[in-house]
């Protein structure tokens, strides 16, 4: 096939793959994604940073050929492979690509070296140069500094910093799952890109928030913050103004939230739905933003995106056989995986439920939420259809929760 590379710096090219069809990744819904790879031309060597997912190598090879053509080079020769992460979406085609350039050297973190050889049979005998934070690699006029970045979002993740151009190749950190014709975040609607980055952080990085805080501080301590001119992640858009995404990550990892409450509910015969509506009205009466999610139709991956910058949540489910209605269960598991207290903020949770002849949902929802790092604020429960008195109680509970987060 024929495909073009995109020049992002002097002798630096985006040569990744566009996956227009992807609608689910890492367990959450997406509108397509990209597998970003970068080719860097030095005076003595040429390096490829990261690789692509299965089936995407024709795009990669076509863009590599185009980049060499743009550089006025007839012979396509890659001397160095830098693998910032071993997950399949970045490494599946590494062995295939190495066969084209068998004399190339491979550089990776200690854990990436181990994981590559465990995951991919073809790489078990591959010689890999292991690098740690502070190690450097000179291509001739282009020098890389390596920075280990464990738990952003795997234990093997690594950043690669191109000193002369101030480009941070950050792999999974600072990315978004989007597939657009533009390559730079600043060429798109800023709110759309922020929402995509927030959903990405909420679903993939929340659990690693302590690592994000440490890594941002380490980058500052190394004196790199003022040197970073561009951030080139492995998914989505490249940041020409890196301060934007660095500020987002600082806020999200430290639990900076808005006066916002996310209401999450499911219902069988509209009783819990009526309670959810009343809770929302009480919250809105205090001028606090409400995000509503109906779990018959909505996904937990979107829920957590709004929970990330909410000061509190309200969760409602009817009782079914002494348990919360099952469709709410996926959201509870998602919360447990992410554990929002890792962002340093403890979010309050209001629980509400309609039961039949027996209860059980409230207690189990509260246990699940406490286990996921939430602080139980209050609960409201009714038997069968809520009366006007119960709906007023829900309204007041929402109002009280809203007042509390404003304080």
List keywords for this structure.
single chain, 407 residues, alpha/beta, Metallo-beta-lactamase, Chain A, Rossmann fold, 2 domains, 7-stranded mixed beta sheet, elongated
Structural class: alpha/beta
Largest sheet: 7 strands, mixed
Count of domains: 2
Query: How many H/I helices?
Result: 12
Shape: elongated
- DSSP E strands, number: 23
CATH-derived topology of the largest domain: Metallo-beta-lactamase, Chain A
Uncertain runs with pLDDT below 50, 5 residues or more? Answer: none
Name the CATH class of the largest domain: Alpha Beta
The helix content is 25-40%
Mean pLDDT: 95
First CA to last CA: what distance?
Answer: 59 Å
> What percent of residues are in strands?
15-25%
CATH homolog superfamily of the largest domain: Ribonuclease Z/Hydroxyacylglutathione hydrolase-like
Assembly form of the protein: single chain
Spatial extent as radius of gyration: 24 Å
- Second CATH tier, the architecture of the largest domain: 4-Layer Sandwich
Placed side by side, the strands forming the largest sheet appear as 1-2-7-8-9-10-11
Structural commentary:
34% of the residues lie in helices and 25% in strands. By secondary structure, it is α/β, with parallel strands linked by helices. It folds into 2 domains: 6-253, Ribonuclease Z/Hydroxyacylglutathione hydrolase-like (Metallo-beta-lactamase, Chain A, 4-Layer Sandwich), CATH 3.60.15.10; 258-402, Rossmann fold (3-Layer(aba) Sandwich), CATH 3.40.50. It has helices at 57-70, 88-91, 94-100, 110-119, 190-204, 209-221, 242-253, 271-284, 300-308, 329-338, 361-371, 388-406; strands at 6-9, 12-14, 17-19, 24-25, 28-29, 33-35, 38-41, 46-49, 80-83, 105-108, 129-130, 136-138, 143-148, 158-162, 167-171, 230-233, 258-265, 289-294, 310-316, 319-320, 323-324, 348-355, 375-383. Helix 5 (190-204) crosses helix 7, helix 5 packs across helix 9 and helix 6 packs across helix 7 (242-253).
């Amino acid at each position: 096939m024929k495909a073009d590379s995109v020049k992002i710096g002097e002798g630096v090219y985006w040569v990744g793959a566009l996956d227009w069809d992807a609608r689910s990744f890492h367990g959450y819904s997406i509108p397509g994604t990209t597998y970003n790879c970068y080719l860097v031309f030095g005076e003595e060597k040429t390096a490829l940073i990261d690789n692509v997912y299965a089936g995407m190598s024709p795009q990669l090879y076509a863009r590599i050929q185009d980049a060499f053509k743009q550089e006025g080079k007839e012979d396509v020769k890659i001397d160095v492979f830098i693998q910032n992460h071993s997950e399949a979406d970045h490494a599946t085609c590494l062995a295939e690509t190495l066969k084209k350039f068998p004399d190339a050297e491979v550089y990776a973190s200690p854990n990436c070296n181990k994981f590559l050889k465990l995951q991919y049979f073809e790489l078990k005998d591959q010689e890999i140069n292991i690098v740690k934070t502070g190690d450097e690699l000179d291509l001739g006029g282009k020098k890389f500094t390596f920075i280990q970045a464990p738990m952003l979002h795997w234990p093997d993740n690594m950043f690669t910093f191109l000193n002369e151009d101030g480009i941070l190749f950050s792999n999974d950190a600072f990315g978004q799952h989007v597939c657009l014709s533009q390559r730079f975040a600043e060429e798109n609607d800023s709110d759309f890109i922020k929402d995509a980055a927030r959903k990405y952080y909420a679903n993939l990085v929340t659990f690693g928030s302590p690592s994000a805080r440490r890594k941002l501080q380490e980058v500052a301590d190394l004196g790199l913050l003022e040197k970073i001119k561009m951030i080139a992640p492995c998914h989505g858009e490249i940041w020409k103004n890196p301060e934007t995404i660095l500020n987002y990550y600082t806020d999200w990892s430290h639990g900076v939230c808005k006066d916002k409450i996310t209401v999450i509910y499911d219902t069988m015969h509209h009783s819990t739905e009526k309670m959810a509506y009343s809770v929302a009205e009480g919250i809105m009466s205090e001028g606090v933003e409400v995000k509503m999610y109906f779990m018959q139709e909505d996904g937990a991956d979107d829920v957590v995106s709004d929970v990330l910058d909410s000061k509190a949540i309200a969760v409602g489910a009817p009782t079914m056989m002494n348990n919360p209605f099952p469709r709410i269960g996926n959201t509870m598991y998602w919360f447990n995986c992410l554990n929002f207290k890792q962002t340093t903020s403890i979010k309050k949770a209001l629980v509400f439920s309609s039961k039949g002849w027996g209860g059980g949902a409230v207690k189990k929802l509260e246990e699940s939420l406490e286990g996921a790092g939430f602080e139980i604020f209050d609960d409201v429960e009714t038997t069968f259809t809520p009366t006007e008195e119960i709906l007023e109680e829900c309204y007041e509970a929402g109002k009280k929760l809203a007042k509390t987060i404003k304080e």
